[in-house]
Amino acid sequence: MTLKLQLIKELRVPIDAGCICPDTFAGKSLNEIAELQIWEGNRKRLLNSLFELKEDSQETPDETNIHLTGNLSRVQRIGAGMKGGEITVQGDVGMHLGEKMLGGTIMVEGNAGSWTGSAMKGGTIIVKKNAGDYIGGAYRGSTKGMQGGTIIIHGDAGTEVGCYMRNGLIKIQGNVAQFVGIRMRNGTIVVQGSAAERAGAFMTGGKIIICNNVTSILPSFSIDSIKSKAKAEGEAIKGPFYLFIGDLADHGNGKLYVSKNKNEYLKSFEEFL
To answer: Which of 41, 125, 145, 272 is the least crowded, having the fewest Cβ atoms under 10 Å away?
Structure first.
């Protein structure tokens, strides 16, 4: 069961499109879906004023597939709170993709904005290119970031990936900016590329695996050992890795794995083993 949405106008202001979700579309006629309300800036619009809709019938969220095309970089909150089904975006997408998501799959063929997967509890988000800041993170004023599910970014990601993360898996196949895993409490973050400074700052639990260079190690982390591999949700990642424990400034017991071969400057830590 598939519903196709084609953007029909150039967007000049942000769009709040939280209604674009399998749970919202399931069981509705095409006319009912077309009349769902979205926000264009500070104005209410009908969904069909911005998108051309074509559909095959859909019965339940798990049977509902939504295909979106066009430049959606200003369209926010797609898939918010979704419990099942699939969303495919043929292009770029805006902020808050899949926020508070509970299940289902979102696939983005282009780039995704900041706050992708914020506070999500289940499901899978896959971004084929780059993503912005705060991936899987908590909103300002909250201490509940990603609590379950999987986020896979094929390109690079920005600052504070996994902020206040409590569970789940984030895999970044490119590089990340500073503060990856800041204040994380549980879960796993895998960075196949390099990481900027302050990795794991204030973390109290969880696991960060950096497979390439890291700019520096915070002085509040203590070296524990050298490991031949690291495990991420049952997957073995070949090392060797330096294993650091921290953030001791917050009495943390998080695990920070850093590639031994890509960080020769850390060799001096071996005298403490």
So the answer is: 272
14: alpha, beta or left? (left if phi > 0; alpha if psi -120 to 50): beta
pLDDT digits (tens, 9 = 90+) for 158-184: 999 999 999 999 999 999 999 999 999
> Does the residue 168 lie in any domain?
yes
Q: Is residue 132 part of a domain?
A: yes
**Which residues are CB-contacts of 49 (< 8 A; sequence separation ≥ 6)?**
none
The single-letter DSSP state of residue 129 is: S
Domain count, the chain: 1
Task: Note the Cα 247 to chain centre separation in Å.
Answer: 23
Q: Tokens for 49? A: 């004023």
Q: What is the pLDDT of residues 121-131, one digit of tens each?
A: 999 999 999 99
Is residue 118 situated within a structural domain? yes
Backbone angles phi, psi at 199, to 5 degrees: -60, 130
pLDDT at residue 63 tops 80: no
Show the domain range for 220.
Answer: 111-272
Question: Helix, strand, coil: what percent of the chain each, to 5?
Answer: 10, 35, 55
Domain presence at residue 237: yes
d(CA 255, CA 189): 10
Q: By the 8 A CB rule, do 260 and 240 touch?
A: yes
Cis ω for the linkage preceding 14 (within 30 of 0): no
- List the end-to-end C-alpha distance of the chain, in Å, as a whole number: 58
Tokens of 125: 């988000």
Amino acid identity of 93? V
Three-state DSSP state, 48:
helix
Distance CA 109, CA 216 (A): 33
